[in-house]
Amino acid sequence: MIRSILIYPDPRLKKACEPITEITDEVKAIAADMLETMYVAPGIGLAAPQLGFMKRLLVMDCIKDGPAEPMVLINPVQLWASEDVTTFEEGCLSLPEQYADVKRPAAVTVRWTDLDGASQERTFEGIWSTCVQHEMDHLDGKLFIDYLGPMKRQMVLRKLEKVKRERARMA
């Protein structure tokens, strides 16, 4: 089921999420809905709080061309980050049509629980690294605009207000 994505400044986007203590049918259903919603949006990552589900759950798939590689990460924890940094132009489904360059570690190692309850660990690089860090930030109530200087952040937020007004007019 495709769900509505919260749009900034919804206060839930700035709240830290609680860990998932049990992988229930509800958690599995939400993960499936998150993947469907992410693909339709379209996006490469989506965190549970973006749908108003305030738990530590994210989905991502950074494959543009070729077979999909959907990933569901429950209670992800960053174990390591490279000293090398990289800059990617980031966007966010909760800040539609807004983009800005963000510097992050070029590679990170993350441990999480999968939908079967098994512990997983992987070192992500490139766009996968940026995506997992961006989505994990959501779980802590942090948005990509929080990495921007005050002037750039204000510019993005002014553009977002314009997009929201245009969408409201078209609805």
Task: Output the keywords.
single chain; 171 residues; alpha+beta; Peptide Deformylase; two-stranded antiparallel ribbon
Describe the protein in words.
By secondary structure, this protein is of the alpha+beta class. 30% of the residues lie in helices and 30% in strands. The protein has one domain (11-170): Peptide deformylase (Peptide Deformylase, Alpha-Beta Complex).
- Gyration radius (Cα, Å) is 16 Å
Could you say which overall geometry the principal axes of the C-alpha atoms support? globular
Sheet having the most strands = 5 strands, antiparallel
Percent of residues in β-strands:
25-35%
Topology summary:
Layout: H1 25-40, E1 45-47, E2 57-60, E3 71-81, E4 85-92, E5 95-105, E6 107-113, E7 119-125, H2 126-139, H3 150-170
Antiparallel strand pairs: 1-2, 2-3, 3-6, 4-5, 6-7
Could you provide a short overview of the structure?
This protein has 171 residues and is α+β, with helices and mostly antiparallel strands.
